[in-house]
């Protein structure tokens, strides 16, 4: 998706002391990714209709590894079940479930095992696709991803701004992870 469609662009960074002066004569080598859409228009967007810049690091994101599944067992009425294959045992869960009739326990156990296999398959597919994409990546691009540095900026302390020295954090978000430098 092109950045123009997402209403985003690389805009020149203007230092704080130069913000009130003319910026057209400023020759900067620093650019930041920013929204080009006006703030008033952003306020009217539905949740999830704005774009967050997504960075695909070469490291795996841990919170994508969910081991729980939810499924409906087809009975009359259907039974909604939640199962975590890391902490629960299939046999104990199948025979310990009081909502399933005794004559259905064996079929329920097989159904549960099939759902666990499907869940593991669904978890494995994105990992394999990601690994394949990384293996097929151009060496220069791969090196650029490995050497990328993130800067996190905090407001400069002035009499008008609160003191943020005690609350500075390197963490950015789950995609960008931690900043290399705090400014």
UniProtKB/TrEMBL annotation:
Domain of life: Eukaryota
Protein known as: Uncharacterized protein
């Amino acid at each position: 998706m092109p950045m123009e469609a997402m209403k985003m662009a690389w805009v020149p960074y203007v230092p704080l002391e130069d913000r009130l002066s003319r910026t057209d004569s400023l020759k900067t080598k620093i650019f930041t990714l920013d929204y080009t859409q006006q703030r008033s228009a952003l306020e009217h967007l539905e949740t999830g209709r704005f774009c967050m810049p997504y960075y695909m690091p070469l490291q795996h994101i841990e919170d994508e590894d969910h081991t729980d599944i939810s499924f409906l067992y087809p009975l009359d009425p259907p039974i909604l079940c939640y199962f975590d294959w890391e902490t629960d045992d299939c046999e104990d869960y199948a025979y310990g479930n009081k909502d399933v009739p005794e004559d259905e326990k064996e079929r329920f156990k097989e159904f549960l095992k099939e759902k666990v296999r499907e869940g593991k398959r669904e978890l494995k597919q994105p990992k394999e696709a990601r690994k394949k994409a990384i293996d097929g990546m151009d060496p220069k691009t791969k090196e650029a991803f490995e050497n990328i540095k993130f800067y996190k900026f905090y407001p400069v302390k002035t009499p008008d701004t609160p003191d943020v020295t005690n609350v500075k954090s390197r963490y950015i978000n789950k995609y960008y992870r931690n900043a290399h430098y705090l400014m």
